[in-house]
Recover the amino acids of this structure.
């Protein structure tokens, strides 16, 4: 009787071992194997996506290749302004003829600022980031650079842009302008990885976040005679704000060498991804590229 009981126990033990092994081998208990996410193909020559919270890299394509950045340069312009000590966003800046002449000479994108108007720093930042106003960029560089001449102040401001890049530890970024207009990849450049890191840092500012997610903005400026001018509404050039759920920014760019660029960010289910595509083939292509990369980032 005792021997029979021991034998039964042994057989039961062996059955448990085999059953457990089968569970481990098949991954049973209702857990399906994870499906691999296919890395997307994009038209852009360079791309990068990161998890803004952890800093983890989610996608790379020529992520460290230096390229012309076009108006995505203005992300750093805004970052420098917003990092000024004791910044008062309601400080008024008088629009100079030099800013208007610059737009005309370079056939540059404009916020259509009126010479002689007094415009607040906050309004200039919206004019910089939504319609990509190079006149607004010039005004900000002139205001926040140091020196006795406009040229000296602009040079000083660009120096601040480069210092911020160095402070972030970026070795593949250099600025020689406040707006990225009319420059080449040998004089004003960055990479998808570096631009994404600049943007992730800039997004720590509540003011920056508020500006880059705004679809339209109407500024009321003070005229030279003391009256009030209601400007035509500025529309954000970033189409993702209207076409991608969770989009929170950031900035478009283009140019003869830069082609079509887009720095983007979105938040879904508490996760924020930030990324960049450089040298895409069209406005539609850069937006399609960005959507693919954000989908890929969120799937990981």
């Amino acid at each position: 009787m005792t021997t029979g009981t021991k034998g039964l126990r042994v057989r039961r033990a062996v059955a448990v071992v085999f059953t457990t092994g089968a569970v481990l081998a098949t991954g049973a208990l209702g857990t399906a194997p994870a499906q691999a996410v296919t890395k997307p193909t994009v038209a852009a020559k360079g791309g990068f996506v990161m998890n803004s919270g952890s800093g983890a890299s989610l996608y790379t394509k020529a992520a460290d290749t230096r390229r012309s950045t076009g108006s995505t340069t203005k992300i750093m312009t805004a970052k420098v302004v917003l990092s000024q000590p004791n910044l008062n966003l309601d400080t008024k800046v008088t629009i100079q003829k030099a800013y208007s002449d610059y737009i005309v000479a370079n056939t540059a994108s404009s916020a259509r600022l009126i010479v002689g108007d007094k415009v607040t720093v906050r309004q200039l930042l919206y004019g910089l980031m939504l319609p990509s106003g190079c006149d607004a960029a010039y005004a900000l560089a002139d205001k926040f650079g140091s020196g006795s001449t406009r040229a000296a102040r602009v040079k000083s401001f660009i120096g601040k842009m480069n210092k911020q890049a160095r402070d972030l530890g970026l070795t593949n970024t250099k600025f020689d302008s406040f707006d990225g207009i009319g420059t080449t990849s040998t004089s004003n450049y960055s990479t998808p990885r570096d631009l994404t890191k600049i943007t992730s840092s800039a997004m720590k500012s509540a003011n920056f976040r508020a500006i880059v997610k705004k679809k339209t903005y109407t500024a009321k400026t003070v005229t030279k005679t003391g009256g009030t001018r209601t400007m035509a509404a500025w529309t954000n050039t970033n189409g993702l704000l209207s076409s991608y759920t969770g989009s929170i920014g950031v900035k478009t760019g283009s140019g003869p060498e830069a082609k079509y660029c887009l720095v983007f960010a979105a938040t879904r289910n508490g996760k924020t991804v930030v990324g960049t595509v450089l040298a895409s083939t069209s406005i539609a292509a850069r937006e399609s590229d960005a959507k693919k990369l954000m989908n890929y980032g969120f799937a990981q």
User: Anything to note?
Assistant: The CA atoms of residues 18 and 24 lie 10 Å apart. Confidence is low (pLDDT under 50) at residues 1-33. The first helix runs from residue 2 to 26. The chain is about 40% helix and 20% strand.
